Every structure is written in structure tokens, then in C-alpha cells.
Amino acid sequence: MGLTLAEKILSAAARQDARSNEIVIVDVDVIAVQDGTGPLAIEKAKELGGKLAKPAKTILFIDHAAPSPRAELSNAHKGMRAYAKTSGAVLSDVNQGIIHQRLIESFVSPMDVVVGADSHTCMSGALGAFATGMGSTDIAIAMVSGKTWLRVPESYRINIHGQFKPGVYAKDLIIYLIGMIGADGATYKALEFGGEAVSNMGLPERLTLANMSVEAGAKAGLFASDEKTRKFLESVGRADDWCEVKPDEDGTYEKVYEIDLGTLGPMLAAPHTVDNSLKVEEAGGTKVDQVFIGSCTNGRIEDLRIAAGILKGRKVSNDTRLIVTPASRKVYMQASKEGLLSDLVEAGATITAPGCGVCVGVHGGVLGDNEICLATSNRNFKGRMGNPNASVYLASPATAAASALTGQISDPREIGA
Amino acid sequence: MEKLAGKAWKFGDNISTDHIAPGRFFHLRTNLPELAKHVLEDADTEFASKVSAGDFVVGGRNFGLGSSREHAPQIIKLAGVGAVLAKSVARIFFRNAINVGLPVLVCDTDKIDEGDQLEVDLENGMVFDRSKDIELEFAPLPPAMVTILADGGLVEHFKKHGGLAIG
Fold first, then answer.
1. pTM above 0.90, yes or no
2. Phi, psi of B30 (to 5 degrees)
3. Residue A134 and residue A79 in one domain
4. Which of A82, A167, A386, B91 is 20 to 30 Å from A311 at the Cα level?
5. Measured between CB atoms, which of A118, A135, A184 is closest to B95?
6. Residues of chain B positioned with their CB less than 8 A from the CB of A134
7. Hey, where are the domains in chain B?
8. Which of B61, B90, B95 sits opposite A138 (nearest CB)?
9. Which CATH class is domain B3-161?
């Protein structure tokens, strides 16, 4: 019997045949924490008394509160910087960007096992790595031992066919999929994406799909590593890190879903769960007080190009405000070189430093009572953007840019690029 | 393992880590006793002041979905909660809860109402609702998690065995 992607990667990491539902102890290749979970992981790692097993592959990201808005957080950052010096861990400081974007740019390779103290660690699955989020204690164990324990997940195969229609993107697809299977529809499972549409997709789209796999409860969102993956790694100066990874043709899947992109239109995830999915027209005209374009899900250069393409030469509505956060320094600089930042600022956007602050309600863009935000991020839970009395809709960068122009939820196909 | 007894505090489906440990208190993550004063605040603003030691958090489907913040089960435990009962539990929360020594039990919580007096027999997998005089069976924990919980959490497990001794 053949192997799924999850079984293939975990078998190699466990150095044994690792089939669904088996418990395995695996070597980890990349270990990551951020400033919300890192201090606790560091405390536990110190308690375990250990030197780091893989210091060059243990990365401490300061991104959730970057630059720091409060003294308590500045002190936590000081602790992380000091620990990086004494332990040899790699520090990704306030100027560098969001953990998951930085991981795929600089650290993760196909076939890696990646564990991160952040739930969206699953984004690295787009590179053909087994990447999953865990809490600080699990990560501390990985930091000092270089290992973790995992139950090999059963896989759901998501076959995607056809082509996106104009104005429709990977974000619409993942919101549709989560709406279909539910916010707990893939709990403890791996989502393995495939089909000819996935082969044709670039990495940015695969990253958006892998990123939000956890919003269906999944342990991982996995993609084969192919020629597109190689080109992406080449584009970030890491061509040598590429290898091919693909599932066997006769792997066993617990469920198989077929999705035809031709039937898909722009989608929304309405408050307060990600599986509360709607077609954009079902909430069209809803007034939005803020639009946010950014996050690990949709803060890449391709997303900023889409947004700037819609907003260039136009003005954000006086009835709303637009915040744009490039996902990393690399994305920020590229957007600057391409003139996207000036297009966006001229249209009325506020550009913030790369990071997570707006998405998680830590700082920047905190909503007022009864306000509504349309965001390109990954969660719309109650209180998510800093206020339990506010509401968040999730959508694609195109829908976000269209809605920023009108001040209400708008269909990007009706605005025109 | 000991028997637990206390009162049920009932919550609905999809109680997220943002309900449990809201992002606006991010700066308190290095001060868990202070963060615990806000536990579950976005699901029930009064919860932290109402809960007593030994009480139970009783959720619906998909309890603990969302973030990897281990602070969520940590502050539920710090608030004195003896165990979380739910119809289903999100993966990372489940793992974190066991790692910090907070039992999480999957059972049919629809039968339990707010304020019911519960007893939990961890060893035999039973919940007794004394207010309703009913018994609910809960799914046994996976063996790996029984080992971690019995060792007193993942850090203690690692220290005791000099590494991971699971599977």
C-alpha cells in the first residue's frame, strides 16, 4: 500500500514505516517560536536544562508585537534577544516580519518536519514539509531534544480542478472548503491538496491554502514539492534546498473531495467563525469601518499587487480606513521597489511594519465597539482584532481592496482592476 | 488517579483560544496569575470571579479551537478548574492541556446543565451528574496522553524518562 504525503515525510523523519494512526517520535528539522509563545517555551527549555539540539534551526521570531507597544512586551523581547545570544538560537527581530513568511523565505525545505509554537505553522506545508503548530512545552522539548512525538494523521485528499475565474482567488477557495467541511471538519487529520489546478498554482496560492488548513482543525496542510516549489526556492536564493516530494499513487485517504474552481465566486467568512462562509453578494453592501490587508495568509507581494492594482489612481472611501501590512521585510522592500506602497498610500492606505499585531488584536488597527472590519487574515473569532464587541469578516485581497474603495463589502468583479 | 468534584460552568460550541485568553491581554502572557483573572472573559465576562476550585468547564463542539497559546489551558488550570469536558476538542488545545496537566474529557455534554454538581472518575472514564443522577462515559485518553498526564505533564515526563518515552 502506498503512502500519503504525511506518511511519506513522517516515515523518513521517524526512520521507520509510519502509517496513519501510529504514534512516532520524529527528528525535527526546524523549530520556531514567536513573542507570544516564545518566552514560555524558553522558560521550559531552561527548566529542562538543555542546550539547544539544533540552534541554527531554532528561530525566535519577534513579530506579534513588533515594534513593541508596551513595556511588558519590550521586556519579553529583551528576554528573547538575550536567550538567542546565550543559546545560539537564531533571532528574527522586529524588522524581519511574520514567522510563517520568514520560515518559507529562509528556513524550510521540502521533506522537513517543522514544529512551531504558532497554530499557522502549517503554512510551510505548501513547500512539501510536514509542518504543524504546538504549544510552548512541546516546542521546548523539541528545542532541547531535537525531537517530537506525533500521531501520524489520516489524510483527506482535496482534488482541485479547473481554473479560478477572474476576481476569484485561493482565499475564496479555502473559505469555501472550510465552510463545506466545518471548523472541526478535519480535526487531527492532514489535508493533502492535489489535482491539476494545484499543479498549475504558484506557491503564493498554495501558501494561503496550507495556512488556513488549521481553520478546519487540520494538523497539517500538505502539497507535493514540484517544479513550482523549485522555482520559488530559487527566487529566495535557496535552489539547492529543493527536492521532489510526492505522495504515492495508491495511498490511502480517509476522504476524498473534488472541487471545481469554475463554480467558485468570491467568498466571505462572516463573524465569528471561519466556517461561517457566504458568497460575497450575500453580505454585499455591509458597511465596513476598517479594511485590513496583511497577515501570514495574505500579506505577500502577490497580494499587494492585487490590492494596488485595484486601488491605484483611486481613493479609499471616506467612510472607512485601510491598513496594509506587508508580511515580511522582503515583501515590504519588493513592494517599495515596484511602487506598490506609494500607489496604496496615495489611495489612502496606512502601511504598518511587517508583523502580526493587527490580525491578533495586539496593537495597531484595534476595532471600536460595534465596528466591522473586512480582513484578509485567517481568523474572525470574537475579540480577534482586540475588541469582543466588534466583528470581522474574512475575504481575499481583491475583495478587501474593492470594499476599501466603497466603504462597504463589495464584489471585486464589479469594481474592475 | 483522584476523583474530581465540582460545579459545571456551561459554554457553547467553538469556544476559541481568543475567548479563553484574548489577544488584547497579550502583554500578560508573561504574568499568568494576572492573565488568569481574564480567563474565558470573552465567553462569560464574570467567569473568573464566579469559578471555584474544583469546578468544571463544560463546552460543546470543537472546544479550544484556534491559536497554539498554551496560556489558554494554563489559565483555566490556574483558575482552579479540575477538568474541561466537551463534545469535541481542537487538536493543539488538547495536546497543550495534557502537557500542562489539565484533564480534557470528551463526552456528551448536552446532558449537563450549568450549575450541575459533577464528579469525574478519571481512571474509570465516568462522569456522574449528581444533580440529574445520570452517568456519562467519556472516551479514554490516547495511551500517549495517559502516560504524560500520569507523569504530571510533559516536562515532568521528559525529566523522569530522560527524553520522550511515548509510543
1. yes
2. -95, 10
3. yes
4. A386
5. A135
6. 68, 92, 95-96
7. 3-161
8. B95
9. alpha beta
Distance CA(A397)–CA(A382), nearest Å, equals 22
Q: Per residue of chain B (167 residues), what is the pLDDT tens digit?
A: 568 999 999 999 999 999 999 999 999 999 999 999 999 999 999 999 999 999 999 999 999 999 999 999 999 999 999 999 999 999 999 999 999 999 999 999 999 999 999 999 988 889 999 999 999 999 888 888 889 988 999 999 999 999 999 86
Chain A residues near residue B151 by CB distance under 8 angstroms: none
Region label for B57, one of left (φ > 0), alpha (ψ between -120 and 50) or beta (otherwise): beta
> What distance in Å separates the CA atoms of residue A345 and residue A231, rounded to the nearest whole number?
31
Neighbours of A382 (CB within 10 A): 21
Of the partner residues A23, A138, A361, the one whose CB lies closest to the CB of residue B23: A361
Distance from CA of A405 to the nearest CA of B (A): 29
Whether A62 and A154 map to the same domain: the answer is yes
- Three-state DSSP string of A284-316: CCCECCEEEECHHHHCCHHHHHHHHHHHCCCCC
**CA distance linking residue A346 with residue A293, whole number of Å:** 16
Instruction: Say how many residues make up chain B.
Output: 167
> Does the complex come out with an ipTM higher than 0.90?
yes
